[in-house]
Write a structure and sequence with these properties.
This protein is mainly alpha-helical. Helix content is about 70%, strand content about 0%. The chain starts with 10 loop residues before the first helix and ends with a helix.
C-alpha cells in the first residue's frame, strides 16, 4: 500500500479511503494539480486535516495512491485490449475483424486522472517511480523477449493515449475515431521489417537559443523552461526562475504578469523556433529514407533520453491547457500562425468530420510517444520500422 495506508485500521477507515480517493479524483480531473491539496480534499469531505495526514505523508503520497487505485486500472484495461489486438494481428484469419471498443475514447473522470498522473510523472519523482514500476511490471518481459510484439503494443498504446489526451480539449466524432484507429490496426497487420535505422543529426530538437533582443529576458525564459521541466509549473517559483537567470524577482514581475505568462512566452518562442527546423528535418528524413523509415527515425529521436526535459515541459504545457481555456486559446493562436505559412494553396478552410478524426489521430501520435518516453524509457530501443513501414506508407 502507499504511505501510511498499510497500517492496521478500523473497518470504517476503508470507506473513508474510498471517499477520499473519489473526491481527489474529482478535483484532479476538474482543476488539475493546481486545485488538489490535502487540505482541500479534507475540507470538501468535512474531515480534519489531521485525518488526511494520518493517511498520506504528502501530496505525492496521495498522487501515488490515486495511481494505484485509479490510474493503473485504466492503464491495465487499455493494455489488456492492446495485447489482445496485437495477438489478433498474428492470426491472418482474424485481421479484418475489428474489435476496437466503441467506448475506448469516451471521456470519464477516471481516464482524465490517468492522463493527469501520466503527464505529471516526469516532474514528480515519487509518482514517476510508481508509474515506471507499474509499466515495467506489465511490459518489461515483452520488451526484453519479443521486441516485434512489444513495438506493436507500445505504438498502439501510444496512439490511444495520445487520442485521449487530444480529446481533453478537442471535439471529434468518436465513431469516426474508432474507424480511423481500426484502419491503423489493419495496416499494422501487414508484415513490417526490422530496419537498422541510420544515425542522424537531430541535435536541433529541444535546443533553441532565444533572441528576443533583451538578454535578460532570454535568460528568464530559459530559466523558466529549465525549472518547469524539472519541477512542473506548480513546483516552480519566480524566485527560483530569478535565481537561475541571475536577475531579481522584481525584474520578472516588471516584464510578466505571472509565472504562467513567462512559461507561455517561453513555450511559444520554442515552438516558433523549432517549427520550421523540425518541418525541414522531417521532410529531409522522408526524402532520404522514405516515409516509413523516416517516421521510425523520428519516433526514436522523440524517445531519446536527452529530450526528457523537453518532453516534460511540453507535457506540462498540454496539461495546463486542460484546465485553462485562455491559455489553450493563446497556444492555439500560436500554432495557427505557425502553420498558416505552409498550408497548401486551395486547402479547405474547414475539415469534414472524417478529416477531423484523421487529424486528431495524427496529432495524437507524438503526444502518446512523449508520454511513453517518460514512463517507459526502454521503448527507445524498439524496432519501430515494424509498424511505421506499413502504417506510414510512401
Amino acid at each position: 500500500m502507499v504511505g501510511r495506508l498499510s497500517r492496521a485500521r478500523p473497518s470504517n477507515a476503508f470507506e473513508n479511503d474510498a471517499r477520499i480517493r473519489d473526491m481527489a479524483t474529482t478535483q484532479l480531473a476538474q482543476d488539475g494539480l493546481e486545485g488538489l491539496t490535502l487540505g482541500n480534499v479534507a475540507r470538501n469531505l468535512g474531515m480534519s486535516h489531521t485525518a488526511m495526514t494520518k493517511r498520506y505523508d504528502d501530496l505525492d503520497d496521495l498522487l501515488c495512491d490515486l495511481w494505484v487505485h485509479v490510474g493503473q486500472p485504466q492503464i491495465d484495461r487499455i493494455l489488456t485490449w492492446v495485447f489482445a489486438e496485437v495477438e489478433r494481428l498474428s492470426d491472418p484469419t482474424s485481421v479484418s475483424q475489428s474489435s476496437v471498443e466503441p467506448t475506448i475514447f469516451r471521456k470519464t473522470k477516471e481516464k482524465s486522472v490517468m492522463l493527469e498522473l501520466l503527464v505529471l510523472a516526469p516532474t514528480r519523482p515519487k509518482l514517476r517511480t510508481c508509474v515506471r514500476d507499474a509499466f515495467e511490471e506489465r511490459l518489461g518481459d515483452t520488451l526484453r523477449t519479443d521486441p516485434v510484439a512489444a513495438v506493436k503494443v507500445v505504438f498502439l498504446f501510444a496512439v490511444v493515449l495520445g487520442v485521449q489526451a487530444e480529446l481533453r480539449t478537442t471535439q471529434a466524432h468518436q465513431e469516426l475515431l474508432v474507424a480511423v484507429l481500426s484502419e491503423v490496426i489493419t495496416a499494422m497487420a501487414e508484415p513490417g521489417e526490422v530496419v537498422e535505422l541510420p544515425k542522424v543529426d537531430a541535435s536541433h530538437m529541444g535546443r533553441y537559443a532565444f533572441d528576443t533582443g533583451d538578454e535578460r529576458r532570454d535568460r528568464i525564459l530559459l530559466s523558466c523552461l529549465e525549472n518547469v521541466s524539472s519541477h512542473g509549473l506548480v513546483g516552480t517559483t519566480t524566485k527560483a526562475i530569478a535565481r537561475v537567470a541571475g536577475v531579481s524577482e522584481g525584474l520578472i514581475f516588471s516584464m510578466f504578469d505571472s509565472k504562467t505568462d513567462v512559461f507561455f512566452e517561453a513555450t511559444a518562442l520554442q515552438s516558433k523556433l523549432g517549427y520550421q527546423a523540425n518541418l525541414d528535418f522531417v521532410m529531409s528524413l522522408n526524402e532520404k529514407h522514405g516515409t516509413g523509415v523516416g517516421n521510425a527515425i523520428l519516433i526514436r529521436e522523440w524517445l531519446s533520453p536527452r529530450l526528457s526535459k523537453f518532453r516534460a515541459a511540453l507535457l506540462e504545457e498540454i496539461r495546463l491547457t486542460w484546465h485553462d481555456v485562455d491559455l489553450w486559446r493563446r497556444i492555439q493562436n500560436v500554432k495557427q500562425e505557425l502553420v498558416s505559412d505552409v498550408r497548401l494553396a486551395g486547402k479547405k478552410a474547414s475539415l469534414t468530420p472524417l478529416e477531423r478524426a484523421v487529424q486528431v489521430v495524427t496529432l495524437a501520435v507524438p503526444i502518446g510517444i512523449y508520454i511513453v518516453g517518460e514512463v517507459l524509457p526502454e521503448a527507445v530501443g524498439l524496432p519501430f520500422s515494424v509498424v511505421t513501414l506499413p502504417v506510414f506508407r510512401d
